[in-house]
Amino acid sequence: MAKTISIEPITRIEGHMKVETHIENGKVSNAQISGQMYRGFEKFLEGRHPVDAARIAQRVCGVCHEVHGIASILALEELYNNPSVPNGHILRDLILGMHLITDHLLHFYTLCMPDYVDFTKILEYNGNDTSINNLKNWVIKTKPQFVLKRNSGNYISDTNTCLGMINNYFQALKLRSRGATGMALIGAKAPFAHAVLPGGITTDITPATLMQYHTVLEELKGFVINQYIPDVMEVAKRYPEYFDIGVSYNNFYTNETFKSLGDPVFKGGIILDGNDQSFDFNHVKEYYDTSYYTPAGEPDPKKDGAYSWTKSPRYNGEPVEVGPLARMIVNKDPYFFKTMKKLGGKVQSSTMGRHVARAVESRNLLDHLYSLLDSYKLGESNIREVDFAQKITGKGTGFSIAARGALIHQIEAVDGKITKYNMIVPSTWNFGPMAQGKMGVVEKSLVNTPVKYSTENSIEVGRVIRSYDPCTACSIH
Amino acid sequence: MSINNLSRREFLKKCRDMSALVFGSTIFTNEIAEGFVKLSAAERPQVIFIQSQCCTGCSISTTYGNETDFIDFITNIIRLQVHPNISFSQGVDYMALIDEVANSGPFYLVCEGSIPAGMKEACIFNDVPMYDYMHTLMNKAAAIVSSGTCACSGGIPASNQNVTGAIPMDEYMKRTGVDKPMVKIPGCPINPDRLMGTVAYIVATGKLPELVDGKPRQYYGDLIHNQCGRYQAFNQGHYTTSFDKEKNNCLLKNGCRGPVVFSDCPTRRWNGKVNVCIESNTPCIGCIHDDFPFNSPLYLSEESFEDTSWSEMKEKMKK
Which positions in chain A touch B69 (Cβ < 8 Å)? Predict the structure, then answer.
């Protein structure tokens, strides 16, 4: 018999989201995902000074906090016809790369790990490790409800594995804080680097800055190599079925990024129906079929048949998945393919594939960050600034990435004022609702997800949703 | 010893640190220590985080910490019970958790984001507009902390044409008749010390710190300009004409809002105290100001600054 399970709110994601699933024969047969919060960023920007977009569009999301600033800057640089100086590019990539790695740590440990690891195992610890004992005492004495109340499900339960991962759960928080220090050294602060302006970076970079950044990078590398990657592998080995759960349309797209040293770390491109193609922006269109907008794009919260604030971008009418997995598959990353083979997972859209892709990508990015540090030229200019007083008229588009996937910002200005601003954001691609008769990417990938452990809630659905690292504030804006 | 896992010496050091953090001096160490001694770990007041029209940046900033450490905060200072980005439960179980905690004893409520009053459907929480839900939770709280500029003054969601009719928490409380003590911690995002320091103080002493316009005086007592490391450059009239070539000049003519923003940013700094906007040679954009993000351009280069007096200039920048 069919049954409906509605999960609202979905926690451990950014923002407000609801998912409604129909369950038949113990599996999801249909799903609707609603983005539940709207602010109107594209409207706030209209009439403002173009450069203000760098600071305001940046604030669309506080989780992917550096990526929108950078995409916005790229659009502005095209508008002002003023690309960054080489050092500026390098510094921006140093911020972006560190941000992506720490964002992946946030995703795997803080947001996803509680779906896989039994944290109550800490109560069984009898050893002498002070930090684990402190945590154990904390749980016993204060009974933190955010930890103890959890979904029913199949957790990893052998004590040693759990203890290691719980320890890393807290370590990851510390490492993210260190990563933020690394970003702040260059960008002034994190979240929201203010030193990033069209043409480059305002900060005076000294050898000490680079050395401090290097120290952070070393710490991050240690954690990624010794803890993060092994932990992802461990979870992947324990849950091999998730290499076949959470399968979307298998269309993938990414933008070219990290190109300050010439060859990009990620090539751009799109895979549709298994065919590699070059990406043509003219084929991208945002639909509002089941979104709360009028055909003209104005908000219409009472629209008939609509169920989400998220729009539905489509490429030639097709839903496309974005994210680290898309970057790995479009780029045919050899290390990723090798790792998947070792784990016995098929290279396709899947819950566990997305986790593995993030881990592999973090390693690749670490390598690149070291090269970037080596290529920075002390003493050369960091910024070629634009004249803010100029009454600029024109257009610009910034193609970049967020941890969650391909990101586009578009700006149009007349006489020094923004007339149109548009963002096409990763979570919009993934979490957009039904359009043109086709389910959104994540909706589609929920179909066939087994639901075993609860009649009102579903840890499995949560796992699939979170594997995409949803960011509703970004996706709706 | 009430505070778990700490020796007496560590405990007093923690209280000293906290006092220094909230007040810039250690004179209140004893008051804070007494507050903690009275509370056993299990009695420590509970904290619930709730998010409305926000970007989660304030929560993320909190986890980054600065002088304060987030793990220390949640394991040794408060009893964190509910946080949308961290709680292990979801859906019905998460809603049940909120109810359980809210009905189990005193708790403090940390609110992020603005509330869409003009378009209530623009923020839905458990099938109900946040506008209709939030006040029921607020009415059960011992005190409310507005975290971030959106919650304190509307921020970006309330800017320009304010598409959703976004309002800050104090306005929302007025409209829905919530009468609870409230403290504002503005900032886009908040500086972690200011949130954790304030909450720690409230938890330890059971009262709000000294406030100016609803904000803790310790953090928001003086203008950025007055504490600025480049004050001498301003005095001598050395202004930045090129971000590339001049790295130590006053940024006033590049739009710096230091002269109208009350905040201890120059000394508090960010992310392990490594940097702060002006030191990075980028003007303060006033993310703590009630009018942020302003109607005027953030990076204005107004020629009229040349001939105006100091007080006229301040007036001009307020707009």
Answer: 177
